[in-house]
Amino acid sequence: MLKQGGNAIDAAVATTVAISVVEPFSAGIGGGGFLLMHRAKQKEMRALDFRERAPLKATRGMYLDAQGKVRPGASVDGHLAVGTPGTIAGLYEAHRQYGKLPWKTVIAPAIRLAERGFPVSHRFVESTRSRQEMLLKNPDARAIFTRNGQFYQPGQVLVQRDLAKTLSAIAQDPNSFYRGKVAAAIAQDMQANNGLITLEDLKQYRPIWRDPVCGNFRQVRVCSMPPPSSGGVHLLQILNLIGDTDLKSIGWHSPDALHLLIESMKIAYADRATYLGDPDFVKVPVRSLISPEYAKIRRQGINPRKATPSAQIKPGDPALIQRLSRESTETSHLTVVDRDRNAVSLTFTVNLGFGAGVVAKGTGIVLNNEMDDFAIAPNTPNAFGLVGDRANAIEPRKTPLSSMTPTIVTQNDQVKMAVGAPGGSTIITTVLQIILNVLVYDMNVRKAVASPRIHHQWQPELLMVERFGLDPLTINNLKQRGHQINERDGWGNANAIVVLPDGSLEGAADPRGEGVAAGF
Hints:
Radius of gyration: 22 Å
Number of helices: 19
Largest sheet: 6 strands, antiparallel
Helix content: 25-40%
Distance between the termini: 11 Å
Shape: globular
Strand content: 15-25%
Strand order of the largest sheet: 8-9-14-15-19-20
Oligomer: single chain
Structural class: alpha+beta
């Protein structure tokens, strides 16, 4: 798209729709996401929310049984788990306002991929196996993602004819997804399978432009996605908790530096569980949570030598939150920077692998299971182990809380870095560590993205450490401080672009995933 004279928005839209074809297990037009963009000439940052929404018929206790207990699998498997998709509406809105190339041009590559097919990857095969029960159960999913009931092997070519027809209809008229034949097919499939989404849900869907959350960190300004994403708020909160601590002199991945990061993560995720939700439904104290004053107060509660048990870490005091307010939630990510230094950081998803495990009949569209991102019952963990309360309870047309953290860093109003990642609850801490690797530890972007990661989300009481990422002495030191450690294989599939001091661009894709950095 850039070679054809398009800008960052054209490239982001085209790539998003293409990924929807080749990564149906992680993202697609049956899901939703967030877009953050920096317009270089205007020195403007914009944030677009095209996240899924709860259907009009959704109720707070829709996943509970008569005794008030959570029905296993109800919020993740099948049509009842699906939120109203927003991807096409969001992409069209961004393109309508800021794209240069014709809409048909940016959709064309995805149509070709669906019509002609592509060789499936190992990651695709692993994902089908992890969701095989649902994919075999749903007739349309079975017809597309198996060969007469046998799952694809790496290198075999997957053709998606129904999806190609759907994308062709969208190329002609993007509103067909919400008001035309595509919408009718989705609504009919929902009605036939006890889903809640109706034609009215699709007709009423609108993407929402929101004010980005921004804050200063050292010499740069960090902007990210506001609620209903928790990503930007807690990224900035953790950066504030770190403050002016000289991490570089303490040493990269030294026990003291790691301990501060871990304890800061726990504080942020505790606040997430209580205060974060859809700002159109609940008052989210964004200003308080990202204020340096609040961080200084919470920092005083961090014991520099010993881990504070999660049970003893409470969300911020409501009275303090209120006072500061008066004073001043499987995914894919892409980043683009064009020749004019416009930047896009875009994260989108169908939630878990292959979403709800169902395809809307006749459309080829894999439907999301984003309803699981609501707090389906107070203090009940979702699929990522995250807990929530009333702020993120299910309500009709409400947007579930997200952890997606598309982020753009600027210095003197010029783009310095664009970054983001998939990975559910680990997204926030992944983006955080890449930013610190570049800005504090002076790593090149490839090393910053590839470096080992840690993650703590308050609940459960567990520090995730990438296997072989820390040396035994460091792990032992952290254990002595009281951290309960779970070593596991690497997570996330981040990517980033950094603008170097000479103005040239350096990009990197995560070696843990299948992405690639490309430029011309």
